[in-house]
Amino acid sequence: MKAAILAALASVAAATGTITIKNNCQGAIGIQIDSQGTQGQSQVIQAGGNMETDLSGAPGQAVKFSTSGDFAHPISFDYTIDYQDGKVYYDVSDVAGHPLDVYVKPADDSCPEVSCPASWPTSVCNQPRTCYPSSNYVIELCESTHSTITKARMRRSVKMAAGML
After folding, report:
1. pTM
2. Which range is the signal sequence, renumbered to this chain (predicted)?
């Protein structure tokens, strides 16, 4: 039994994906990656810039976004890797603030997107979703160049969260 669990842990750890963050906002966005309550080093992504990080952390992390730079009221992409069932559980948490639009798209089309517009109810964002640790994720902040598609996806996410689809 121990050997099976260790083998599962090793395969999940070896197959972790990446998180690409795209700043489509007009200004710079502060990023801070916290792991198990420990604050990470804050970084800045300039307008139009990108950043990539590994999907890692035992068992999960909070990737926080702030428009003010002080992270007093961030919105965050939270995830937990469950090594026993080989899945990632993720959501967008806006309980501390909702300063900008956040759109999360897993590369695996079988995994659900998260659309969290700044002006919409928080219940849209906080619904947990599941995917696989090997999947890559793209997080777009603010309106993208594909804003019509993004808005349609956001409306669909709201309907899904409300049980209308």
Report:
1. 0.77
2. 1-15
